[in-house]
Amino acid sequence: MAEKMDRRVRKTKAQLREGLARLMQKKSIKEISVKELVDEVDINRSTFYLHYTDIYQMLHKIEEEAMQNITEVMQNHPIDPGNPDSVLPFIVQFFSIMDKDRDLCLALLGPHGDMAFVEQIENILAETFLKQLPDRFPKNDPDIKYPYAFILNGCVGLIRTWLSSPQSESPEQVARLTYHLIENTIQGYLNMKK
Q1: What is the DSSP string of 7-74?
Q2: Could you give the C-alpha distances from 157 to 46, 105, 144, 178, in angstroms and in order?
Q3: Looking at residue 26, what DSSP letter applies?
Q4: How far does the chain reach from its first CA to its final CA, in angstroms?
Q5: Half-sphere exposure of 31 toward its Cβ, with a 13 Å CA cutoff?
Q6: What phi and psi values does residue 25 have, to the nearest 5 degrees?
Q7: What is the pLDDT of residue 187?
Q8: Residue-wise pLDDT tens digits, 17-41
Q9: Cβ proximity of 24 and 112 under 8 Å
Q10: Which pTM was predicted?
Q11: Which of 174, 161, 186, 16 minimizes the C-alpha distance to 94?
């Protein structure tokens, strides 16, 4: 019986997440009411309140889960500064997480998304991936902030474009593309500095 209840709870939460993703692609979280969300997914308000206190708490829980998933990927696929090949498995898993929750990720990273969440993603990318770069760049380079910003913003833009594309590449394909674009940017910057 508990398993059946768990399945129902998971199904209800999935419906709410999907409904919130659809609504966030049209409007900001401030403009979405509980009534509008439950009407979107055809459940009653009391069912919503069994799981969340309000829309903001729901969004917060969703973002927490997403960050938890990303943290697990970082732990399961650590990047070894001495081994450039260790970067690709991390990027593939990162894109796989986003692919599983494509609509929700697009909503969170889109124009009506939560900019604080986008900053968290950027910070994780910077901390996990970009912190490996200083060993490859000239020491005490005052211009290092520019390739960092270019790579970071390029990654976020690439993710948005990939998520919004109706016929998108697999997580593996887009991860390889991302990896090569980052490597080419680094190499181009290093060649310019010579």
Answers
A1: HHHHHHHHHHHHHHHHHHTTS-GGG--HHHHHHHHT--HHHHHHH-SSHHHHHHHHHHHHHHHHHHHH
A2: 38, 13, 20, 11
A3: T
A4: 68
A5: 9
A6: -75, -15
A7: 85
A8: 999 999 998 999 999 999 999 999 9
A9: yes
A10: 0.78
A11: 174
**Average per-residue pLDDT in the chain?**
85
Q: What is the largest CA-CA distance in the chain?
A: 68
pLDDT digits (tens, 9 = 90+) for 116-128: 888 887 787 777 7
Structural contact between residues 49 and 57, judged by C-beta atoms closer than 8 angstroms: no
> 99-129 burial string, b = 16+ CB within 10 Å, else e?
bebeebbbbbbbebbbeebbeebbebbbebb
CB neighbour list of residue 172: distance below 8 Å, 6 or more residues apart: 92, 95
